Amino acid sequence: MTTVKSFATKAFRSTLVGVGAALIAGSLTSVAVHAQAQAGGSDAFNLPDDISFISTPANPNERRATARVNGSIITGTDVDHRVALIVAAQERELPAEEVARLRLQVLRNLIDETLQVQEAENLDIAVTDQEVQQSYERFAVEARGMSVSEMDAYLASIGSSPNSIKRQIRGELAWTNLLRRNVAPFVNVSEGEVTDLWTRLQESRGTAEYRLGEIFLSANTANREQVRANANEIISQLREGGSFVAYARQFSEASSRVVGGDLGWIQLQQLQQPQLEAAAAQMVPGQLVGPLEIPGGFSILLMIDQRQIGMADPRDAVLSLKQIAIGFPAGTTAAEAEARGAEFVAAVESMNGCGDADARAAAIGATTVNNDEIQVRQLPEALQSVLLQLNVGQVTPPFGDLQEGIRVLMLCGRDDPEETAGPSVEQIMAQLEDERINRRAQRYLRDLRRDAVIEYN
């Protein structure tokens, strides 16, 4: 049973703290929920292994993307506008079959949003138009750096609309308010649980901690191979440049979906799945693996980052750097570039730190650029390891080419990060509470789906 505390915590907190941040680019329902849903699955129904479908006038997998949910209508335009938001977030054109699959997932998401708003209204938990508009305005400014009018124009230009985002805002606000009033007050975490977890964290200082992204797809014996094929297709699209965050928000069935599949910082044993633990232990930042079959379905993992628990991460150091560079005029031959490069390297090696670098650079026609506040982790990985080994006044090996020119980075100063104390007792208490709220919320939504009257057109 996969249960990741920071996953559930992030998912719930992201909704409480900032509705707008999870919108355009866009649980763990813990995989525990999926496992429970599968308990007794096909065995309980006594299904045959060889299924033969009875012919029907229409293919149920080719429904048009419109629906009526307990009387509330979801139109094809609603789906089109939400799909346009996701497609615009991609760095490439999506193939037709991918868009078709995306439309089905968007429809499912819109159904969930509709159910959440309806339940909140039934319980007299209202979300006003003013609240929605204020959240939309904050989203435009904070997440997109646009005015409301600019945001409106942008959405129209990509084939979407403000109402598409406002609809999602309304659903998230309604669900958050419902959970805060009807679920959160009945969740309790004992001091003993918190103390035990805090003690274990202190004992684990210095051990590895991982930040993982996950896309979970539920499966059973009947649809196992189809789900595996879908997972392989998602991996293929991700490796071609697709956004992991966008795919997680639309396709993942874990509660972390609302934060783009981000599990947060965890230790591998928190995954509670040997298959996932073994795979993650071999991964490096940026690596994608899967599909990994686990009880209840398949997982796709992305290693976002790694660090040592409670220890300062050298990549959080803030550097003061000076870039020294020369360019090559058009028509420069390889021989001329080599001679000019040798002159540049010799001049750089003769520099006595950052104090006289500007004057010596000017003497050979080189330019300098200063940056006094840049984190190591903001730099390309190839430069990170080199710069961490330098002393003040030293330079990186030269890099570049005939088109870009040649340059080096000189280290002028470094502010090393302080060691982190880890989460406080209060933070751990909040995390455990949020995890339990999230689990109850997923069961609540599952019950709403089960009882809903949904008509497809």
UniProtKB/TrEMBL annotation:
Keywords carried by this UniProt record: Chaperone, Isomerase, Periplasm, Rotamase, Signal
Pfam family, one: Rotamase
Secretion signal, residue range per the UniProt entry: 1-35
Isomerase among keywords: yes
One MF annotation (Gene Ontology) recorded for this entry: peptidyl-prolyl cis-trans isomerase activity
InterPro entries assigned to the protein according to its UniProt record, in alphabetical order: OMP_Chaperone_SurA, PPIase_dom_sf, PPIase_PpiC, SurA_N, Trigger_fact/SurA_dom_sf
Coiled-coil regions listed: none
The keyword Flavoprotein is annotated on this UniProt entry: no
Span of domain PpiC: 207-305
Name of the molecule in the record: Parvulin-like PPIase
Provenance organism: Aurantiacibacter aquimixticola
